[in-house]
Amino acid sequence: MAQFAVENLAQVNEFLSNNNYLNGDLPGADDVRIFNALKGVPPKDQFPEVYFWYLLLSSFTPAVRAQWAPAAAPKKDAPKKEAPKKEEPKKEEPKKAEDDVDLFGDDDVDPEAEKKAKALAEQKKQEALAKKNKPKPVAKTIVIFEVKIFEATDQALLESTAKKVKETINPDGLTWGKEVKFEEIAYGAKKIVMSMIIEDDKILTDDVFDQITAWEDDVSSVDIVSMQKV
């Protein structure tokens, strides 16, 4: 894979003209590295592909982008130490009778110490209960998809269709990506490229796509570009 650098955005822009991300179909370590190095939105006129790519990545939270970077290398196991040689147990000398007598023993329990011990035990019990009842993280998926319309050369219709999708389809568990791209297909025709984050337990991609294709007078097809678990 090409080595990308912010000092050569022309190369990055050319690569993005034929790819969704610097790592191919799915975002990865190169996308995170260049995104963080840019320190701001690149000029649209000079680097249009980098501009739209930057806005698309901005629609994801820093926590999501952090997951695209490679995991840290596993630590090497420390060399095993040789087990110490066993020493033969020393013979205990028989106790004298007076050793069994505790002249200063006290059978009374300190009430304050007992109170603190009970409070600590109760605190640990509550912490364990809270940990057990802690809700599990919600499973989510990033979906990038493309919409093709019959009047694919009509820019106004492309934009109004994308706006209609985001304003009309808003079930619980779906969040639309901020940026929408209009990528050229051929001879001036374009397709709409959009992104959404769905909660797996609430939303099916087919349900969303069925609502879009129901506008059969305008929409010709809807296809998935990529999917990634968050």
Question: Can you tell me about this structure?
Answer:
Residues 74-98 have a biased composition (Basic and acidic residues). Keywords: Elongation factor, Protein biosynthesis. By secondary structure, the protein is an alpha+beta fold. Among the domains are: 6-66, no CATH class; 140-229, Alpha-Beta Plaits, CATH 3.30.70.60. Helices cover 34% and strands 18% of the residues. The protein has 7 helices and 5 strands. Strands 1, 2, 3, 4 and 5 form a 5-stranded antiparallel beta sheet that branches. It starts with 8 loop residues before the first helix and ends with a strand. Mean pLDDT is 83; it is low at 71-78 and 101-107.
Distance between the termini: 24 Å
The helix content is: 25-40%
Mean of pLDDT: 83
**Which blocks of ≥5 consecutive residues have pLDDT under 50?**
71-78, 101-107
Rg measurement, Å? 32 Å
Number of helices: 7
CATH topology of the domain at 140-229: Alpha-Beta Plaits
What global shape is seen? elongated
CATH architecture of the domain at 140-229: 2-Layer Sandwich
Q: In percent terms, what proportion of residues is strand?
A: 15-25%
CATH superfamily of the domain at 140-229: Ribosomal protein S6/Translation elongation factor EF1B
The overall strand count is 5
The CATH class name of the domain at 140-229 reads Alpha Beta
**H/E element string?**
HHHHHEHEEEHE
Let me know the largest β-sheet.
5 strands, antiparallel
